[in-house]
Design a protein that fits this description.
With 215 residues, the chain is of the alpha/beta class. The protein has a single domain, classed as NAD(P)-binding Rossmann-like Domain (Rossmann fold, 3-Layer(aba) Sandwich). It has an eight-stranded mixed β-sheet with strand order 3-2-1-4-5-8-12-10, with helices on both faces. Helix 1 links the parallel strand 1 and strand 2. The chain is globular and about 45 Å long. The mean pLDDT is 97. It binds NADP nicotinamide-adenine-dinucleotide phosphate. The site of NADP nicotinamide-adenine-dinucleotide phosphate (NAP) has 26 residues, from helix 1 and helix 3.
Amino acid sequence: MARIAVIGANGSIGGAVVVEAASRGHEVTAVVRDPGRYRGAAAVVERGDVLDPADVARVAAGRDVLVSAVGGGDGPGHLALIEPAARSLVEGLRGLDGPVPRLVVVGGAGSLETAPGVRVWDAPGLPEAILQIMHAHGAALDYYRTVADLRWTVLSPAAEIGPGERTGRYRTGLEQLLADAEGRSRISVPDYAVALVDEIEQPEHIGERFTCCSL
Ligand SMILES: NC(=O)c1ccc[n+]([C@@H]2O[C@H](COP(=O)([O-])OP(=O)(O)OC[C@H]3O[C@@H](n4cnc5c(N)ncnc54)[C@H](OP(=O)(O)O)[C@@H]3O)[C@@H](O)[C@H]2O)c1
């Protein structure tokens, strides 16, 4: 059993991570900006803003794993949140006196490769707002890759992630965008949560980004 705090637990992906982790018997704390609005499955709820390193340190203290599933809504929202959140998470964890939990972060698919040297975000015609979201996650990943003193992991979803069945089956990769048997890069939110909690239980990607896709 791991003690897991999930920042962004009110979100669609964060909420699914809470459900998946709690269903496996982990001790899950939902971290949200307004506990009064929390409607999720976690037994324990704490207030916290990912952009405040003191909040990060407070909610991380005594936990084995800190998950960040925060999102910024639109493109400018992501630019204002995702890379600053990465810096705040790292600063907060570095400020802990006691044991430092692992950090597992929900990332983006934009920086994955579709061919050698070609990334998802290089595709022509992508709307500016989508590019902003992709590059916000790319900047955060670049930052995490400079962090050698923490046990961080970034899990990039497939290109499409949305509501769907929990099959419990998925494939993983590192830098290449993955596709399923029908050639689509997609994963359901519940299966993404399965992949994330599997990584918590059996760490294989400490200090790197990986990705998951349906079969
Ligand atoms: N294919 C892809 O690459 C792909 C696809 C989908 C999503 N994603 C990424 O996955 C992440 C999660 O997506 P989602 O759809 O689950 O997002 P979501 O439903 O919009 O949830 C985001 C959560 O982040 C929380 N949040 C925002 N700012 C915060 C802050 N300063 N402190 C603490 N919490 C904060 C929000 O909390 P409140 O409830 O307080 O507002 C919200 O619950 C995003 O970063 C998104 O870009 C990637």
